[in-house]
Amino acid sequence: MLEELLIHKPDDPIQYMINHLKQNNDDAPRICVLGPPASGKTTVAMWLCKHFDAIRISQETLLFKEILTLTKEAKACKERKQKIPNALWANLIQERLSNVDCIKQGWILEGFPENQEQAWMLQSSGIIPRHVVVLYAPDTVLIERNSGKRLDPFTEEVYHTTFNWPSDLLVQQRLVEPEDLSEQEISKKLLEYHRNFPGVFQIYQKILKSINADQPSVDVLSQVLTYVQTRHRSAAPFTPRILFCGPPGSGKSLQAALIAQKYGVVNICCGQLLKEAVADKTKLGELVKPYIDSGYPVPDNLVMKILAERLNALDCVTNGWVLYGFPRDVEQGEQLQKSHIIPNRVFFFNLPYESIMERLSQRRIDPVTGERYHTTFRPAPTPEIQVRLRQHPRDKEENIEKQLETYYRNVKELEDFYEGAFYVNADQDPHVVFECIESCIIKPLPCKKLKSL
What we know:
single chain, 5-stranded parallel beta sheet, 14 strands, 51% helix, globular
């Protein structure tokens, strides 16, 4: 704490120390509110946003209230009455959630993900909710509700002609009927929801709570609040402290997301952590910003301060963590150890040089939709898209070679430092890799025999 006082130099040191002792760096809500049409998702999401002072993200806000890189493309699909691709929705959500307000205040994602593919895409991008609330009610009730649904275009509050009619005459006069209100449309949407929901449930079942929406709204909101204020305990047999090391393109971020999702541990990417510190405009973030802006490596002492602060937060201590992106060499590993940050599972991802090059150098992105392609594994579906694909500068072979040279120069000493590490063949299907990692997490470490006296 004395070190923090010296770094931040607060005007009121006593109050700063009190706040520091109370502080939990990961209290910002990350909540998905799901459910069939007319189940009350908007009402619940708006109420949670007011309660937590969080940011609400929905189809309407992404299309009509945000100025994002891909908004124009998504609106064009909507105007042509075409289904907006899952990848486009995922990219829109990822861009919005990376903004400073969502990082600092947290977010409520209303109506997303709609299907399993969207859920996988969000998860692969590191967007993993802490709580998923699913509202449910009989279809007959939902169809009846939908017929009386009215919307306030000024506040976006949802009302009902029977169950929730506003007392204010001015509000009554400006209410409008939402689009797609016919019984045929609502039945079609309900059928699609019931078809897609099992896939979503499979992914989020560990953090999902189903709540009956066919009861007074006060009771629904009370049950939702009770659930989202709970902390999930890890499903692992011990408190995991997992470290992933490996070359670029070996799948560390995807495996970290999968492990965090299944076992409730905190997913920490060192690079993302530094960006969040800059976005939060903390004292340390201000010191880090010039290095990130110029593309130079951030000094180890600054990285360690930010990393140690995060790994010592309550959620990491309670639930455990999975870390990747640090350490990159044995000196950084020693610094972690001196800070008493000692992983109890270390994994080195092994991948042949040719496979790394094939994975990274053939990646392409569509600048119009933001969708990612691969010239071998996922080629563009049409010649029109193929022509406009672009390669990110970091995926050029000469840049990949520089990163690999640095990695291989340091990895041998790092492997010797973590002598009890597990080695994973990352050149196979991601689900096979996950099963391999999971088996090593679940089974106990071999006990070292004590030397006889």
